[in-house]
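Supplementary Note 3. Input sequence used for the single-chain structure prediction.
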Amino acid sequence: MKDTNDLQQELMSALDLDQFLSENRDSFSEGDIHGALNAMFQQRRISKATLAKQSGMSEVYLHQVFSGRRNPSRSRLICLCFGLKATLEETQRLLKQCGLAPLYPRNRRDAIIIYGLVNGVSLFEINDKLYEEEEDILY
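The predicted structure, written as discrete structure tokens, is reproduced below.
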């Protein structure tokens, strides 16, 4: 798979979009969030009931996400990352894989979330801090 910068350079100099798309078919993200979440869930060895509780969502919604019937919003995906005790790098990768904006430290809300992920703060404590700082909470 090509490096993102190489892919961008190639795209910027492409004379034919169809040819570029065809030649780089294997370089595009598929956005299989369900597979990525399932893999991470299996590694963590927790129950879905525990994950639902730690993520602040219902087991029904969680089941729909894991089965591929629903795609989580950016905030919901971040909640799942807190529930899975994902690292910042894992969270950023999942966000990008879904075509969602990565967490950005110059954004005040995102900075609070990043701090929580890096320092193992619970989702509930981060939501309290977001509320206290008059930022949109995660759920």
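The chain has a mean pLDDT of 92. The first helix runs from residue 4 to 13.
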